Amino acid sequence: MTMQTAGIHHITAFASDPQANVDFYAGVLGLRLVKKTINFDAPEVYHLYFGDEAGSPGTIITFFPWPESRRGRIGGGQVGITTYVIPPGSMAFWEQRLEGFGIAAAKVSRFNEQYLQFSDNEGLRLELVEREEGPRSSWSFGGITADHAIKGFGGAVLFSVNSQKTIEVLENVLGLQKVGEDAEYARLKAAGDIGNVIDVPLANMGWGGGGAGTVHHIAWRAKDFAEHADWQSAVSQYGYQPTQIIDRQYFNAIYFRESGGILFEIATDPPGFAKDEPAESLGEKLMLPEWFEPHRAEIEANLLPIEVRVLEGNKQ
Predict the structure, then answer these.
(1) Tell me, what's the pLDDT at 316?
(2) DSSP string, the chain
(3) pLDDT reported for residue 315
(4) Phi and psi of 46, rounded to 5°?
(5) Region of residue 272 (left: phi > 0; alpha: psi -120 to 50; beta: else)
(6) CDD domains given for it (predicted)?
(7) Contact 126/82 with Cβ under 8 angstroms?
(8) pLDDT per residue over 131-167, tens digit each?
(9) Whole-number pLDDT of residue 2
(10) Which among 119, 109, 123, 116 is positioned nearest to 93, based on CA atoms?
(11) Which site among 44, 57, 111, 179 is 20 to 30 Å from 273 CA-CA?
(12) Distance CA 232, CA 222 (A)
């Protein structure tokens, strides 16, 4: 029997300006900065995590903001659009909020749903959709109440250089169910209630180029460590070559690149972001794995200061 992921665990992207990144995702979108750490492979670069109050799987977008990074090009082999889900009746609030910050947005429709599409300060493509599914946010910031706050991911639009192969891996390896197809997209659905709706354009895309404003990888959920090991075996049996299991402090991870060019990760729900700091103060301190602690002073000196702040200019 095919295993089934509950949906997206997190999405990781590139950025260039750390403070502008915090201002957009915390200040404009009202997400919580749940973890401030570093790229373990490049400790001169932040790794910032934004999500709901607890940093729950299915809500987390993460960034490597590196001031020297080039601007990327969105295209095949990437998550093309990251979808956020908001409570029914809150779309007008978000239209006004984005307008208040001078962010251009446009409405589009797919599969009888209406989306509000816009880009972040680096050009990363985002959209909002209203759905009943999923618990409401318990995090309020910058004038965004739970009645309007982002609940987490609605899903994603995957840009593939081989759409049929990408659809096959979503169905046959990750256990998503194909629930619709029109002239432009196939729609697949995972088992969870957020981060669960994936649209794949049927037309193959030309290759994108990595850099600021593009997604590096998309991660799918494994409920625990035992299931994670089973996922590694399942991916191997399907003919892909997953990495070894890697400890990322807040989850374990394996990676593989599917045949449509997109880098997939499978990440464990546990242990979560309260592993190394209290839940009430998540994201307030730079957290380092133990092997970097002896170098804290040097690492902190090389990072630009950042702060979560309520932004001026919101006209609501």
Answers:
(1) 44
(2) ------SEEEEEEEES-HHHHHIIIIIIT--EEEEEEEETTEEEEEEEEEESTT--TTSEEEEEE-TTPPB-B--BTEEEEEEEEE-TT-HHHHHHHHHHTT---EEEEETTEEEEEEE-TT--EEEEEE-S-SPPP---BTTB-TTTS--EEEEEEEE-SSHHHHHHHHHHTS--EEEEE-SSEEEEE-SSSSS-EEEEESSPPPB-B-SBTSEEEEEEEESSHHHHHHHHHHHHHTT--PPPPEE-SSEEEEEEE-TTSPEEEEEEEEE-GGGSS-GGGTTSSB---GGGGGGHHHHHHHSPP----PPTT---
(3) 46
(4) -60, 155
(5) left
(6) PcpA_C_like (cd08347), PcpA_N_like (cd08346)
(7) yes
(8) 999 999 999 999 999 899 999 999 999 999 999 999 9
(9) 79
(10) 116
(11) 44
(12) 10
High-pLDDT (> 90) share of the chain, %: 97
Joined together, the tokens standing for residue 128 give: 């909002």
- The vertex-60 CA angle with 46 and 278, nearest 5°, equals 75
The pLDDT tens digits of the residues spanning 255-301 come to 999 999 999 999 999 999 999 999 999 999 999 999 999 999 999 99
| Dihedral sign for Cα atoms in the order 309, 147, 34, 41 | negative
Length of the chain: 316
CATH number of 8-302: 3.10.180.10
